[in-house]
Amino acid sequence: MECVILAAGEGKRMRPLTGQRPKVMLPVANRPILEHLMVAAAEAGIKKFVFVVGYGEREIRNYFKNGKAWNVSIRYVTQRQQLGTSDALKATEGLTSGKFLLMNGDMIVSASDLVTLCEMDAPVMGIHRTDHPQDFGVVTCENGLITGLEEKSQHPKSDLINAGVYLFDQTIYPLINAVGLSSRGEYELTDALDLMIREGQLAAHPLKVWLDMGYPWDLLDANTRLLSVLSPVQEGEVEDGVTIHGAVSIGAGTVIKAGTYIEGPCVIGKDCKIGPHAYIRPGTAVGDRCHIGHSSELKNSIIMPETKIPHFNYLGDSIVGSGCNFGAGTKLANVRHDHGIIKVCGRSTGRKKFGAIVGDNVQFGINCSVNVGTVIGSDSNIAPHSFVEGWIEDKTNIQS
């Protein structure tokens, strides 16, 4: 059986993190979202993959190549224009045979759910229960069949949603070839699904595990979930005087210097320099070639490769891009004074603790303060002693 993964989109709601990488390549527990998804399918027994790529496709191709490193085979199809999910699937015609799995590339699912799904008769839609169905395609079910599908209704008819996981056979291709442009100007898979629903053909399969990656703060939830089942591997050098509690993975070439205190679960990449006297708290993922230095504290955050947080810094519940540098004393707040829910540009994160979203190659001067819910665009320069809040566009120069 083949598995088709749709990985052509940019992920505009993830900006500025997707400025230099496609959404599916954003790291969670130090591995791209797409890798977690592919590995789950491989563990379910699937060895042949078709990636539909587009935005940032070079990074995907360079990372996964032909799949040999994972003992699978990968073929690529390029969707030149983002013309919708039906158009993306149409590009794979002739590359699948019999039943095949189709998944959106921006989520995380479990191998056990995929095993059960693949044993069913096609067509099947994976569904999931959520407390905010208005953000997704809402489905209604009866006797194991999908009876209705409505996109992002403000008055949803149920709390079950389309999870973007499907089992199809070759009969799907004539249906998507017959789909016309939607009101949004795209060729949408949901129009083909509506035809199946009207014929009473589309079965439902509830997924036990489903993590959606719609917004940056969703990355933190997924990061916490995946780190909680971490099998620690320590390949780096740990000096005397380091304290490690819980599950902590340390990559090859990394040095953890004396006085550092690490509480798992957390993961530290390759060729990093940690400490001396750094404090890394649970839920933190530090990418390759990072420097976390003296008296710097990290908590429940994602730090992408080649970022330096070297002296007297604090980051909590934040996502930081690659190639950033934090001047001494720079701190990212993560709690409101009234302990209320934090919003980012008017949109609720649903979280009482959330720091900032920092793009790639952002340079902070010393003693900067960043307020909760702040977004800082890539390639920005923040002058010493600056107070930063709100939405900062890419390549902004902030003078104190």
UniProtKB/TrEMBL annotation:
Pathway annotation from the record: Nucleotide-sugar biosynthesis; UDP-N-acetyl-alpha-D-glucosamine biosynthesis; UDP-N-acetyl-alpha-D-glucosamine from N-acetyl-alpha-D-glucosamine 1-phosphate: step 1/1; Nucleotide-sugar biosynthesis; UDP-N-acetyl-alpha-D-glucosamine biosynthesis; N-acetyl-alpha-D-glucosamine 1-phosphate from alpha-D-glucosamine 6-phosphate (route II): step 2/2
Coiled coil: none
Catalytically driven reaction(s): alpha-D-glucosamine 1-phosphate + acetyl-CoA = N-acetyl-alpha-D-glucosamine 1-phosphate + CoA + H(+); N-acetyl-alpha-D-glucosamine 1-phosphate + UTP + H(+) = UDP-N-acetyl-alpha-D-glucosamine + diphosphate
E.C. designation(s): 2.3.1.157, 2.7.7.23
GO molecular function ontology, one term from the record: UDP-N-acetylglucosamine diphosphorylase activity
Location of the Mannose-1-phosphate guanyltransferase C-terminal domain: 262-376
Keywords, comma-separated and alphabetical: Acyltransferase, Multifunctional enzyme, Nucleotidyltransferase, Transferase
Protein name (database record): Bifunctional protein GlmU
